Amino acid sequence: MKTDINKEKKLLKEPENEPENPDFIWNKIKKSDGSDMHLLVSELRYVLSKNMHLSKMSIIIEYINKISNGNKNVRILDYGSGGGQLVAFLHLIGYTNISAVDIYSEERVNGLNRLFSKAKMRGIIFYSYDKITLPFENDQFDLIVSQQVIEHVSNIEQYISECHRVLSRNGRALLDFPHKMVPFDTHTRMWFVHYFPIFIRKYFYDKYRDNERKQYFNFLYLRTPFFYNSLFKRVFDKVEDFTVDRISEFRYKDHYEGNRKLRGAIDKIFHLPIVGYFSLKIATFFVNKTVVLYK
What we know:
The protein is of the alpha/beta class. The protein has 13 helices and 9 strands.
């Protein structure tokens, strides 16, 4: 018992050189065989309280906190939850009513539920769905979060319709996503190629990405921001764009996937008098969108 306590104290000690990034600890949890799970979760909870700003999830969680207005009992659905990092972080900072859904296989769902059970994060339940209808009743959630998901959805109209259906009255959906106007595509890690017609994209994907055109065409469906805005307004009562707020400060340095020096230079332009204001407005057409949809 004494050895375990000393080990836990060592794990929970704040690093002397650089602050610990919560994302690194999350990766340890995913790889854990379970023997040190409770120690890693304790460490993650501590580091989240100190260094949340270092995580790639920090901005989306900041918006979730604003939308929920301090209510940690708000019913949240992570729509396209992937490996579950966002819902794990939300649970560890106090949110108590969280569901997660994706197009998982049965094996994947069971694996995630086992992982979260071992980590004693039993307030989170993972579900799978058929890409058409979510396995939830109408009006079941107060907040839906969709982060870096809708660019992978072929039937986007159905996806947004399901968002509306399962949201409660006065519920909100927080969406963060890239689109066709963003010059650098982080999936293919190529500049401007997605601007061109299909036959040109096929050539570049095959030549410079090891004949991966089928993969990209089957999981990447980038549309213009004008398309998304039109769709959102048809389905929801109100659309609020937080993109300017998100990009006005370069808070994502550690996880920025483009050219950091270029992004840093652009950030300086954004803070210039007058020029900065108009630069921000123009930039919103060429960066990932962050929007809130109101039912």
